[in-house]
Amino acid sequence: MESTTLTTAEIDRIIEMAWEDRTPFEAIEFQFGLSEQQTIQLMRREMLPSSFKRWRKRVQSRKTKHFMKREEAVQRFKCSRQRTISLNKISKR
């Protein structure tokens, strides 16, 4: 999925997921079809330069942002309260 076809809501969600420590880039790729490099480009384009630099510094020091670098116990990226990762809906209790 190219960034030109993304809605404002989808871009906001990608940025939110990218900021989350425990959401790997693979989850963004699975849900939105953006590779890690495309996500970085989107973040650079959509954020203030200072915010982007802070985010990049934060992401580079996190093992949890890369699925293959994670420990075995933390391999999943789907929250237990989510119905499906593709729609990202939290079920109501």
UniProtKB/TrEMBL annotation:
Pfam families from the UniProt entry: DUF2805
InterPro entries assigned: CHP03643
Name the UniProt record assigns to this protein: TIGR03643 family protein
Annotated source species: Flavihumibacter fluminis
